[in-house]
Amino acid sequence: MKENVTIRGGAHAAQTHDSAVKHVTGEARYTDDIAGPAGMLHGCFGLSEVAHGLIRDMDLSEVASAAGVVGVLTAADIPGRNDISPTGRDDEPVFPDREVQFHGQPLFMVVAETRDAARRAALLARVTYEELPHALDPLAAQTAGYPHVTEPLKLERGEIAPAQKSADHRIRGRVAVGGQDHMYLEGHVALAIPGEDDDVILHSSTQHPSEVQHMVARVLGVACNAVTVNVRRMGGGFGGKETQMNIFCAAAAVAAKKWTRAVKIRPDRDQDMIATGKRHDFVIDYDVAFDGSGRIAAVDGVLAARCGYSADLSGPVTDRALFHADNAYYYPNVRLRSRPMKTNTVSNTAFRGFGGPQGVIAAERMIEEIAYALEMDPLDVRKANFYGPGGRDVTPYHQTVEDNILNRVVEELEASAAYRERRAAVIAHNAKGGIIRRGIALTPVKFGISFTATWFNQAGALIHVYSDGSIHLNHGGTEMGQGLNTKVAQVVADAFQVDFDRIKITTTTTGKVPNTSATAASSGSDLNGMAALDAAEQIKARLTAFAAWHWAVPEAAVAFVPGGVQVGGETVPFADLVRAAYAARVHLSAAGFYKTPRIHWDRAAGKGRPFYYFAYGAACSEVSVDTLSGEYRIERTDILHDVGRSLNPAVDLGQVEGGFVQGVGWLTTEELWWDEAGRLRTHAPSTYKIPLASDRPRVFNVALADWSENRELTIKRSKAVGEPPFMLGISVLEALSMAVASVAGYRECPRLDTPATPERVLMAVERLKGAV
Amino acid sequence: MQRHRGEIRFILNDRQVTLDDVRADAMLLDHLRLVRGLTGTKEGCAEGDCGACTVLVGRPRDGTVDYEPVNACIRFLASVDGCHVVTVEHLGAGGTLRPVQRAMVDHNASQCGFCTPGFVMALQALWMRTPTPTVTQAETALQGNLCRCTGYAPILRAALDASAHGNPADDPLVTLGPELAPRLAELRDGRRVVCGEGRNAVILPCSGEDLAEVLAETPGATLIAGATDVGLWVTKELRDVGPAVFIGHLEDLAAVEVTSRDVTLGAVASYSGAEAALTGAFPHLTDYWTRIGGWQVRNMGTIGGNIANGSPIGDTPPPLIAMGAEITLRSARGRRVLALEDFFLGYGRQDRAPDEFLETIRIPRPEAGRIDAAYKISKRRDEDISALAAGLSVLVRDGIIIRARIAFGGMAATPARARAVEAALEGQPWTEASLVAAGAALTDDFTPISDWRASAEYRMLAARNLLRRFYLERQAPGGGRTVRLDGVRETG
Known about the structure:
- The complex is a heterodimer.
- Chain A is an alpha+beta fold.
- In chain A, a hairpin with a 4-residue loop joins strand 25 and strand 26.
- In chain B, a hairpin with a 6-residue loop joins strand 20 and strand 21.
- Chain B folds into three domains: 4-89 and 176-246, Beta-grasp domain (Ubiquitin-like (UB roll)), CATH 3.10.20; 99-170, [2Fe-2S]-binding domain (DNA polymerase, domain 1, Orthogonal Bundle), CATH 1.10.150.120; 254-491, CO dehydrogenase flavoprotein, C-terminal domain (Enolase-like, domain 1, 2-Layer Sandwich).
- Chain B is globular, with a radius of gyration of 23 Å.
- In chain B, the strands form five sheets. A five-stranded mixed β-sheet of chain B has the order 1-7-8-10-9, with helices on one face.
- Chain B contains 20 helices and 21 strands.
- In chain B, helix 3 packs across helix 4, helix 3 (99-106) packs across helix 6 and helix 17 (419-425) packs antiparallel against helix 18.
- At the A-B interface, helix 1, helix 17, strand 29 and helix 19 of A face helix 2, helix 3, helix 4, helix 5 and helix 6 of B.
């Protein structure tokens, strides 16, 4: 037999997702698929029917006496602290005891023998309220004098006032940026199984098992060591399961301990969408000063966000919006301020990009304003403002951009997409004055990688090598479809030089790797890959020492190679070495750890190096717009995206394609619509429209910048990929904008708010026609 | 043999299931997941909009079994009587991946995997009937499946590549069809099925005539055909639907008859079942038809149901009203015929007695000189509910509009004719100016509402523009200026 020359599924291989076969056969198990223990109960929340008010009376007698009901839980039944604020602000009760702060807020939970019985019983509550005035959006909240839910941030560099005075041009404007529901296909689900003493075990679809552990312990009033949280996989997360699972797990755990029976909560889609947070909507006021060549002199921006009734993650989300309000552009003088507004809506939360995309929209809107004002190609305005040498490399937060590759990315894409020729063709088409107008735009993204809360940038892993040579891998990250488990297993396969299949990927659990961070901020493989590599290297070191001793060769003569371990002149099969090492009492298990180097952030000063590195990309999209109805279609999109040296090109390509389409959905058809009473009326896929297969670009060319390599010592020189491609969808928004602008000779910026639904597009067309 | 059968019988994957205690509100998905432990089929929305619950339902046809993908979440359990229900577990049985599964794996078409079983089932159905689909055919087949991770590109690649991994003629679902068809025919033995009584009664009549009798005995029972609306009464509103009379299986009510004068649709003809006949006789419906729901919904949903539920935003009434459709209502007392627009009395009120059912819809063929169009505007092009829908039919002689029938959905509490617009058009020349001028009359006909689908202002403006489009898109045929995004789309 021919000797293996390479392993299967090592680092940089286009390894298929480890669960792919289980996905297509239906064998992959999600939390709701776990067979429940005998006697399992089901919980269902009862929701508030006002946006803001005081509970006068909550009559749950009919709920409690309904068929199949075991009992109800209210704020009074919380044994520990009635707070699940992830930032410890004590502003987010499991159930409110007095004040209701949004329409759809969970007020109580009914527990019944079946899910159906619980859902029916929950509707029987009779709650009377003293209604109070409400504010639903950030502008209404400001008018009503509502507070910030968390401390605002200011980033400042240079002096804007003199630059504004001396600039040739100055434009002030506003853009309203809509929110977005995660619409993960698997909704929230929590299963709590009571144990002895204080113990409780949870199975849940959460991105953040450690936080669930902390919250459940806090709410139960027990120590963290009593709570174990397990996650095998999620049916999508996108940030929506970073903190939003807390309430379901906490309520399930309280009920499980109270009735000493397993309790599952799986809200229906409507309750999931009504009662859990979403991407923040923003209203952004900008004031940009620039010269006649389109180069920016000063930017003053205020970014106000609809945070909802509590802080949740709104602090870091609005911070990240500011961190990305430069996108790829150097602002010589800049002041950016956040206004994280409290509103009487569900508390908004993490969502892929974490405020960054909203900040990027602000930057790209200003570029558009300049381009239309000067009648320039927006791409030329972009290029004139890219970060570059000569002192033009410092961000508004005083971090120097050291790894800028955007010029090359954009130039390559400009050529491969034939941007200039196609733009000329688009303009020629529109000049004919037809009903169908076209637009094209090429937009870049630069995205900072690292949690801005520096302490989250740590991770752990646990590897066992069993005496038969099989490898058990565990790490603190969670799998939600992004291929994290696959990538980390590739790293471990590469370290041991064994085939991917030898490694068993196991359920993420707080019992194996403690004190983990959320699988978020695109950091999953950066952090957990390094931690797993650390664990693998520890075991390899022990095996190397053992082999050198056992076969009496120098350690330098021991090497892990495909097909075994080279010891001097011979190759010992990996399993044989492990068996011998076990017999010689070598420790074959290791806990690995990693913390990101070189980062620091002083929030009060607005200065630091919050990001380890930046990921880059660019997209060019062309659209057609029907100016009779506002309907549109993406004719073609070309993408070139930077993932450093890809750990797995197949997985990374999937992240880029999927992130782009999700970003397009956010900016086009996904509309959150509240009525005046504060009720969310788009709360299921029948009313909330995410992209379909037929919405993807008619021609879709996606490539990774295969020449890129992370200049930092990241795992195998790769870069994070989860969030950055999301912002490539902005190319579609700007292309729509150009098509609209054509009806007024491209002399007026259409100022399209988002989502740019057919209605908004048609109304913008009418507005611009009226202005001609 | 008893006159009635007291049990629901079907084949689930490879075994027969017989149930004598089916509740009126029992759903197929819950039965699969909670009773049978078949957890490969997922619940994503419980309203037939995401496709994670897609299963195949096979019915005997022409000596073999015809499989259609449907949404198990809103499919009533009782309605699969006499059918073969195939779940994703059945495709994976035996440890060998089927071609569509192989293609999905090879193209990295799953990420989180939660939607994947539903995609696999839809693609299996597509591959069985169209082994080498075009991009448009694949997209149309996947209109009822949402994926939030992949952006769909790899799924489309898999759809186009499935046949590289095998031929549907060799697929067990195809090869075993002739063997299974008679077994299914035997299960559906031609008797009325009655399970439970009173408010829990589940009744499956055995014919249209039998249905008239059942309704005479049980007036006011909930009539359930495709369940794409009634299903949501149960899953979303937890409404009591018993006693329930299921009619989706009645072949005599699903007949589609095409003559030189008209097309007559049985009320329970599904959108899919009627598609060929309708679009053949009325080509202007071709593009419109594929924008009704997703494939699963078109397989389940019926045209009669779309009319009978009286929704102001049903897709079929506007074009059918414009074309002068009339409907026949039947009861044990007899039949009566009325113009479709007269069926809609007001919001939530239709001209149907508790013992009546909608039997047929008759659409006359157009006379020479008639120009027809059907438009739908929605936030998302496919599988969305109309912000507004329009059916426009005008008869033009010597350049003059002799007669106009213009109907809109989404503009009023019911689907309704725009009589002021019609009056403004009649007698006028067939010109852009006439249509633009008539558009001003829309405000006399309608006062639309603002909601999450569209504002009143947009509805009115878009409706006016549709009248213009109606004229413009008929100019310079085969070239000239495009006034509409093409319905049929192929990638280059």
